[in-house]
Amino acid sequence: MKKLLLFLAVLAAGVYFAWPWLAAASQLMRIRVLMGAVSAVVFLITLLAIRGYKLREKYAVLWLATAVMITMVALFPQLVDVTRKWFGMQYVTSVVAVVFIFLVLVSFHFSIALSALNDKAAATASRCAILEARIHELERRLGAAPPASKKGTDEHGPAAGR
């Protein structure tokens, strides 16, 4: 929590000192700065989540790739221009299309992960049901078994000699 508050304080100070420059900058430059800030936040949150064992590495790769992609677009807006020209779209439309494609890929990735978890949960539930049935069968057998006679047994029971 302290790290988050420190981060927010640094972010607020950065915005405060950069405000005059941002106010005079073009709209495209402000969008690029915002994308760079979002990229840094995604990268930092992902690393903190990995460090705190709240996010597994295989899912973190997706978010780190997202941060890299956003950083590349923020640093090299020509990439968006090339893509925009290939598909004949406007700048905003191309950015929205990239975001939409990314969200579809993230949804697909999490659908695969969720399906795998559902399969594991079903397998675990069936194993649990089998083990419960075995326990009940053993309890039934032990409950129906006649008590062991005291002849031929020592203090450790009839199986002590085996």
How would you describe this structure to a colleague?
With 162 residues, the chain is mostly helical. Among the domains are: 25-76; 90-144. Helix content is 81%, strand content 0%. The protein is built from 5 helices and no strands. The chain has helices spanning 2-24, 27-51, 57-75, 78-87, 91-144. α4 (78-87) crosses α5 (91-144). The radius of gyration is 31 Å and the shape is elongated. It starts with a helix and ends in an 18-residue tail after the last helix. The model has no long low-confidence stretch (mean pLDDT 78).
Question: What's this model, at a glance?
Answer:
This protein is mostly helical and 162 residues long. Among the domains are: 52 residues; 55 residues.
What is the topology?
Blueprint: H1 2-24, H2 27-51, H3 57-75, H4 78-87, H5 91-144
Helix pairs in contact: 2-3, 4-5
Question: What keywords describe this structure?
Answer:
elongated, 5 helices, mainly alpha, 0% strand, 162 residues
How many H/I helices? Answer: 5
* Biggest beta-sheet profile: none
Derived structural class: mainly alpha
**Could you tell me the radius of gyration in angstroms?**
31 Å
Q: How many β strands by DSSP?
A: 0
- Helical fraction equals over 70%
Series of secondary-structure elements, N-terminal to C-terminal: HHHHH
The global form is elongated
Query: β content, as a range?
Result: under 5%
Terminal Cα separation, in Å? 61 Å
